[in-house]
Amino acid sequence: MLIAYFSLSGNTRLIARDIQRMTGGELFEIRPVRRYGPDFDTAVEQARQELREQARPKLKETISDMSRYDVVFVGFPNWVGTMPMPVFSFLEQHDFREKTIVPFCTHGTSGPANTINDLKALPLHATVRDALSVYRNDVRDAEGRVRAWLKDLGYLKED
Known about the structure:
Elements: E1 2-5, H1 11-23, E2 26-29, H2 40-53, E3 71-77, H3 85-93, E4 100-107, H4 115-121, E5 127-128, E6 132-135, H5 143-153
Parallel strand pairs: 1-2, 1-3, 3-4, 4-5, 4-6
Helix pairs in contact: 1-5
């Protein structure tokens, strides 16, 4: 299992680490070459511009051998109603044929919005499982929800 995630504020990273601890999967942070910021407003404006341009930012690293993984958790925050553009870059740069993708999303008051539908609309030729969606204020207390979600999907590692 691979747990690939993009996180700016750290919320999605916390959920990714919970998933890693509960599944034994390998963590991979999706990091664009060009950083976002330096503050929240600037990051949001950069995200809006990338969305308008349908940009695919260059990533610092990629997975060299995706064939090692059958199940790939993909985590991201809801940015301007969809996944951050670096997540699109990651998904489009790798071969997901015959893999299972398990999405998880952190968000503010607008919920996951179009994030999951946009992921499912990509021609990944993969099975997409039920997503976990966690409100930003609930991230620190989400361990029980993460555990129940993983158990329901059959990915919870026996303690």
